[in-house]
Amino acid sequence: MRVAVVTFDGFNEIDSLVAAHIINRVPGWRADITGPAEELTSMNGVVIRAQQPLEFASEAGAVIVGSGRKTRDVVADDALMSRIQLDPRRQWIASQCSGALVLLRLGLLRDVPVCTDRKTQPWIEAAGYRVLNEPFHARGTVATAGGCLAAHYLAAWLIWAAAGRQAAIDALSYVLPHGEEEEYTFRALATVEPFVSGAATVHEPATASW
Amino acid sequence: MRVAVVTFDGFNEIDSLVAAHIINRVPGWRADITGPAEELTSMNGVVIRAQQPLEFASEAGAVIVGSGRKTRDVVADDALMSRIQLDPRRQWIASQCSGALVLLRLGLLRDVPVCTDRKTQPWIEAAGYRVLNEPFHARGTVATAGGCLAAHYLAAWLIWAAAGRQAAIDALSYVLPHGEEEEYTFRALATVEPFVSGAATVHEPATASW
């Protein structure tokens, strides 16, 4: 499984790198920071090198769109957006915080309630979508997560849905606070479980609305 | 407050960037990725640019030593280690996971039980130190955290100890899973509270053992 962690300038470090790190714990899986330029500068001035060009998102088996300070500019940029072609019939697709604006712009969230951060919430609502007071929601192969540390829910969902429950437990085990593994694992699994069974296969649309 | 997030090649992305991000939410505070070379490559091949040279750790008001795949090589490298001079009488000092090996090598953990990750645990124990089955521990101005996501405890401790309880709550509020803020805030504060009152001032040694 190849995973594109789509990351733009002004990115939130937690939102791109926590999910990427956890996914890279899964044997045989590989998550790459995927961006529109060779170098990307975070909201706190951390410069990272993209591991894949933006076009990689279209080929990856799963795509996570990260968050950042400039996501509203990103979705207003037609040239940039035309470089991303996602397909929920053959890809797992998820967003973190303001990354939901990208999924919305791509028409991937029709009739689905959205999880996002509190700062992005009014923009999602202004577009006519309902924002949940919850950290994670998915329908079929498309998911949204809200709040940076919800990244570990998002990773758990993707891994469980595509590689099984035990693979998710194993990947989480590397990153959970020492001594609190049981509590964190239980909460993460309980959070994503309602959205896993309906997402049994990525190769067929899970709902007619797609 | 200037904070050095000490980061070496082979670094764990979560261990350096989660604490840095949360700390950068505190008004007037600034956390910088601090490393021995201009570019640092993570355990998953993510290349980031150091924001400060390693020597910055000696001047910063607080130092967080990150974790990674090569920490045992780092502490065996006399030339590298000689570039880090830390002083718990004038600095807050903390480690994340294998970063505890650096604090140990610098003589900062004498007679103090240690929090670290499960992979580093045998190395800490082989050096004669006790490893706790807990995510966070501090004595005075020196703290250790174990498990990547314990980074938010570490950040909460530093911010509470140096800027007050409300500042810690505010900084956390930006990163907690949406809808679960209360649960996460309560747990984080409960985890670090026992270690805050004894760390009231950084300018005097809190225990005679230093």
Can you put this structure into words, describing what you see?
The structure is a homodimer of 210-residue chains. The first copy, chain A, has 210 residues and is of the alpha/beta class. Chain A has a single domain (2-199), classed as Class I glutamine amidotransferase (GATase) domain (Rossmann fold). Chain A has helices at 13-23, 56-59, 71-76, 78-81, 100-105, 121-126, 151-163, 165-173, 181-192; strands at 2-6, 30-35, 39-41, 47-49, 52-53, 62-65, 92-96, 136-139, 142-145. Chain A has a seven-stranded mixed β-sheet with strand order 5-2-1-6-7-9-8. In chain A, strand 1 (2-6), helix 1 and strand 2 (30-35) form a beta-alpha-beta unit. Chain A is globular, with a radius of gyration of 16 Å. The two termini of chain A are 23 Å apart. Residues 199-210 of chain A have low confidence and may be disordered. The A-B interface holds A 12-14, 17-18, 20-21, 24, 31, 33, 44-49, 51, 115-118, 132-136, 145-150, 152-153, 174-181, 184 and B 12-14, 17-18, 20-21, 24, 31, 33, 44-49, 51, 115-118, 132-136, 145-150, 152-153, 174-181, 184.
